[in-house]
């Protein structure tokens, strides 16, 4: 199957999933067989101002070329969120931005200086395909596997589902792992069938049953700053606000910074973590293995 055909198939699967999950009550529609969720294809087509046949072809992944206006109308009819709407557009060939190279980019000295300037705040950089390409010393102690992991396996999506350290570090792993997939879909929707991304997804599909379950949900959401809790083996619980910046000179490069919640005592624990990183003391798990 060609990449274009696969994108059409993905678009159809996503629209079908959204139609089946749409609240009828929210749209002022009566229940169907005592169900308050799920729209008929005829209803979506009527609300979107297109024929039932045309909408059916969209869901079936047929070789059709919907205009942006048609997709905008369908998105409104299904009540799609902004990220979901953008995902639909990208699958149909209307991406907001170019993906750029699927290969991990090389860190520039200026971006590395930006990471280092964050001091005790754990900070790292992601390339377009979500490869971790740089970090500061505090992040190196916050997530010790990063420096030892080969770059070809240092993908955030891959590590989320395969690295036991992340699973123990992330307190709400069940929620976060689903969110990571939804954010990945939102950002790379039009590029899921490029060779590098296909290889990544295939490896995860064969490796992780939890990934397969979440991937099939077709959830999509944009990245948002939020408060997260981590359970670090050396300094204990950390309540950190997660923020992300896009480099103006390279929109395919993102810098993620963890800022301590001011009322949690996490800043003191980050200072402890930074001191451990500066001292190069063996990590606790290394000591226990000896």
Q: Can you walk me through this structure?
A:
The chain is α+β, with helices and mostly antiparallel strands. It has two domains: 89 residues, lambda repressor-like DNA-binding domains (434 Repressor (Amino-terminal Domain), Orthogonal Bundle); 181 residues, Beta-Lactamase (2-Layer Sandwich). Helices cover 49% and strands 13% of the residues. The protein has 15 helices and five strands. It has a five-stranded antiparallel beta sheet. Strand 4 and strand 5 form a beta hairpin. The C terminus is likely disordered.
The gist of it:
By secondary structure, this protein is α+β, with helices and mostly antiparallel strands.
Give, in order, the helices and strands: HHHHHHEEHHHHHHHEEEHH
- Which CATH class of the largest domain is shown? Alpha Beta
* Shape call: elongated
Number of domains: 2
Helix content: 40-55%
Name a few traits of the molecule.
290 residues; alpha+beta; 434 Repressor (Amino-terminal Domain); Beta-Lactamase; 2 domains; five-stranded antiparallel beta sheet; 15 helices; 5 strands; 13% strand; DNA binding; HTH cro/C1-type domain-containing protein
Produce the secondary structure layout.
Elements: H1 3-21, H2 41-48, H3 52-59, H4 68-77, H5 82-91, H6 109-116, E1 123-126, E2 132-135, H7 137-142, H8 145-148, H9 156-162, H10 164-169, H11 173-188, H12 195-207, H13 209-215, E3 226-232, E4 236-247, E5 250-260, H14 266-279, H15 284-289
Antiparallel strand pairs: 1-2, 1-5, 3-4, 4-5
